[in-house]
Task: structure prediction
Amino acid sequence: MEQPLYFPTRVHLLVCTGPSCTRVGSRELFARVWKRLEDENIAYYSSGGNVRLTETGCLGACSFGPNMTCYYTENGALREAWYSSLDEDSFMNVARALQQGRPAPVEHRYDKR
Ligand code: FES
Result:
């Protein structure tokens, strides 16, 4: 039986495209960062990169969008980081840091204070 291609995943980024985040540009943000991940050859689908990007529903922080949550591993343990008020550069800062195994950036992060 044929199976889907699989590449090991280093980080999974989930951008909210719920109604409130959409009103402040999350769908446009998603399209732009998808292209940038592909241009940097780290997007999961383009060339076997290890960064997955997925649209998701409401993350429960509607007044602060565009929002994103990330899942990644650190020292073999599954970790999470939650971000609000993202723009393209702050998104890419998070994506690159986690893809390179650096700590999750604190700018725009709201689960750690
Ligand atoms: S619509 Fe994005 S957090 Fe609720």
